[in-house]
Amino acid sequence: MPTATTSDERHAPRPAVVLAGGLSRRMGQPKSELNLGGKPLLSRVLSRLEPQADGITINLNGTGLHMIGSRTVIGDTVPGFLGPLAGVLAAMRHTAATTPAASHVLVVPTDTPFFPPDLSRRLTMAMTAHGQIAVAASNGALHPLFALWPVALADDLESWLTTDPKRRVRAFIERHPNVTVDFPMTDTAGGMFDPFFNINTPDDLKQAEEWLHILGESAA
Questions:
Q1: Helix orientation angle between 154-163 and 84-98, rounded to the nearest 10 degrees
Q2: pLDDT, tens digit, 9 for 90 and up, residues 83-94
């Protein structure tokens, strides 16, 4: 049975990694380079994450260590473009090497620019057992790429990536102690808004522009 979450675990440094390495086949270009309201999508995600994290790193698959502005960019640690879990593994390995006091790393994708401003705090406070994965949900749907991942799971995740043919994020989460945190929808002038609205297609990008206006968020 998992042991209770310690105070040290809840108050440990909380580094974050943005997963920006998706192939974006439906969009036709890297999502991180898209413009939303005149501002790069990656910049919007970084700005939203900044107050919630103790340092932010960007994961781009297939690349070596370099910089985007003042941000460190890390590549996947396993070859072959193995999907988002490869980015999660890179986040774990980088966190272990650079922030050894951190028990978890917060991971978010680059295609969801409206995620809650209290994401990190609520995921952290929801943990009830040592080594839990804390995962966001909304409107009855799990959002497994918005999660606090225990750094200690890196070896198991690498084994999973290299042996499991499907490499499903949810299936890996279910192998380990986990807790789900439900975030509410917001009633707006444009209808009920899900803060985990994500951009996969050009039509989604147009819808995001509309939400940007409805929500009154800065356009630049």
A1: 150
A2: 899 999 999 999
